[in-house]
Specification:
single chain; Sufe protein. Chain: A; 6 helices; 51% helix
Length: 144
């Protein structure tokens, strides 16, 4: 298993940051989550809820004919931690290939040092988001 270069860059930034700056960085990534495109905002039935998250969190993925993955996340702006997780995944995996997404280790975030600034329960939410995302991508790739 490996981490795509764009996600690895994010992981390294967090790992190298002092503990007190990791929370600030997480908040910055929360602002990087784009709004849902109109087709998903109007019909939310394509979004899957990640129940393991403490905050209502929804995601959808799409796989293009060329194998490019697109990610869509929805979480309240009042929930910066989970939005930060979504921002990290968006920054690191949006536009990646199916193989790159599926190869991401389930605990890729461990070296980021997030365990020092957020609760284990929140980290389980991050793992659940990645797991759902990978399942959706694998299903979409299998049907294309």
């Amino acid at each position: 298993m490996s981490i795509p270069p764009s996600l690895d860059k994010v992981v390294r930034r967090f790992a190298q940051a002092p503990k007190d700056l990791r929370v600030q960085a997480l908040l910055q990534y929360a602002r990087k989550v784009p709004p849902l495109p109109p087709h998903l905002a109007e019909d939310r039935s394509a979004l899957e809820q990640v129940h393991e998250c403490q905050t209502p969190f929804f995601l959808a993925t799409s796989v293009q004919d060329d194998g490019t993955v697109h990610l869509y996340f929805d979480a309240p702006v009042e929930s910066p931690t989970v939005r930060g997780f979504a921002g990290i995944l968006y920054e690191g995996l949006e536009g990646a290939s199916v193989d790159e997404v599926l190869a991401v280790p389930n605990d890729f975030y461990s070296p980021m040092g997030l365990g020092e600034v957020v609760s284990p329960l929140r980290l389980r939410g991050m793992g659940a988001i990645l797991a759902r995302m990978k399942r959706q991508v694998a299903e979409a790739a299998g049907s294309s």
